[in-house]
Write a structure and sequence with these properties.
Radius of gyration: 18 Å
Structural class: mainly alpha
Distance between the termini: 35 Å
Shape: globular
Strand content: 5-15%
Number of helices: 7
Order of helices and strands: EEEHEHHHHHHE
């Protein structure tokens, strides 16, 4: 699996739903790196959460932006995703990782469009929400920085041996029960790589959160 897809490892548990949805105004959802906003901290706004959540929803139904209330569970999971990104972006800056190149920024923009189900759906959502070019550049830049950091620190995670594939297949702990190994070998390899990436990213976020001040202000955030 290419590291160009590492940003997808942040898609944690976004299918959760609750009976009561929310429509967000703007304001601060969380501050990463301090108790209150300051230059060396990263501020996550309600509008950031709103945009990312609706981006995933339009990916399920391309061309039709969802502009109604959002499930609380989706908002909570999306905020956690953005906190994870902010933590890694701050760490990338701390270790003085070079700023993303033009090619990496273009690739990240395309991944955002793919997340929305294509360029047309992405642009439809951007227009519907009034997201500015400056805001989009900031989103793309942070995600590109996160991707570069993960690429530098998770090298080797995408390698799965044939022995590992056969062991997991024999254990039955995979989603391909009832199908022949040769039929699902490559799909199982991709599944194992994705699981390893998710676990590695989650460990990074856990470590960084343990040593970084994170203040959640959003009512839909975790307790």
């Amino acid at each position: 699996m290419s590291f160009a897809r590492l940003a997808a490892a942040f898609a944690w548990m976004v299918g959760a739903t609750v009976a009561r949805g929310q429509v967000l105004g703007d304001g601060i959802a969380a501050v990463v790196g301090a108790e209150t906003p300051r230059p060396d901290a990263r501020v996550i706004l309600h509008s950031d959460v709103d945009f990312r959540a609706r981006l995933r929803l339009i990916g399920e139904r391309p061309g039709h932006p969802h502009l109604g209330p959002l499930p609380r569970g989706l908002l909570r999971a999306t905020l956690q995703e953005l906190i994870g990104e902010a933590l890694i972006a701050r760490e990338a800056e701390r270790v003085q990782l070079p700023s993303p190149t033009g090619r990496r920024l273009v690739a990240e923009r395309r991944r955002l469009e793919a997340l929305a189900g294509g360029r047309e759906s992405f642009q439809a959502l951007v227009r519907a929400l009034g997201v500015t070019d400056e805001e989009l550049r900031a989103i793309v830049s942070q995600r590109a920085l996160v991707s570069a950091f993960l690429e530098a620190n998770l090298e080797g995670t995408e390698v799965v041996s044939e022995q590992r594939i056969e062991e997991v297949y024999a254990s039955g702990e995979h989603p391909f029960i009832g199908r022949a190994l040769e039929e699902v070998r490559e799909a199982l390899r991709v599944w194992l790589v994705r699981a390893a990436l998710d676990e590695a990213v989650a460990r990074w976020v856990q470590v960084l959160r343990g040593r970084t001040t994170v203040r959640v202000l959003a009512p839909y955030g975790p307790a």
